[in-house]
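Chapter summary example: a protein plus manganese (II) ion.
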Amino acid sequence: MRILVTNDDGILSPGLDSLVRVARRFGEVFVVAPDVERSGVSHAITLTEPLRAREMGPGCWALSGTPADCVFIGLNHLLPSRPDLVLAGVNRGPNLGFDVLYSGTVGGAMEGTIQGLPAVAFSLVSAGTFPFAWSEPVVDRIIRDVATHSMPDGVMLNVNIPAPDVAPLKGFRLTRLGNRFYSSDVIHRTDPRGGEYLWIGGTRVTMESAPDADTGAIHEGFVSVTPVKPDLMAREAMPALARYDAMTMPPDSAASLEGNR
Ligand code: MN
């Protein structure tokens, strides 16, 4: 098996080393990861500046871009052939609930999904020690599963692993995204040269504790496995919004609708 590994904490992150170590048990591993931390960049791609890839070793590149850039450039330029699997992580911290919309880890894996490959995002949830080596058997178990079963089309797995300082490990649970809200603190300070700056500082989190939600399962000691997909279409809202399909312009409007249907 050929595996492409990326992350959003950057090429020097111990979580990346850990994921690469486990992935190597399953085949040939290529690494394309951001040269600096890119947490919170979501699925952003870089269109307005050049991307520079620095070869750090055989099959390993540090890219001056986002995790999604890494997967795109890796698949379409750096790798000698198409991989069978895209992995992202192991992230230093949770990617639960609405986090998946902000997460560069999920963004990187999701680019793999968009490129038609099975993909998994791994995150380690810890109160502060981040025992990546401890989480390796869990990562191994998931990769082993993904390698032997096919993934539903257009779906990736978002996996959160609770470290022992969160809860003793009880097993695995298939979950839905829970509700999760950060405190809305904005830190306003003055820099050493007298300029003012703002820093988004919401670190206090409130979240849903339902056992079937990723936010709840993790605190009960379950590895949370949530299927997520790039398709954001709200199909269930279509009937309630059907009026848009027949919307007209007021007769006295300057704009005209010629042959729109
Ligand atoms: Mn991160």
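Key point: The chain has six helices and 13 strands.
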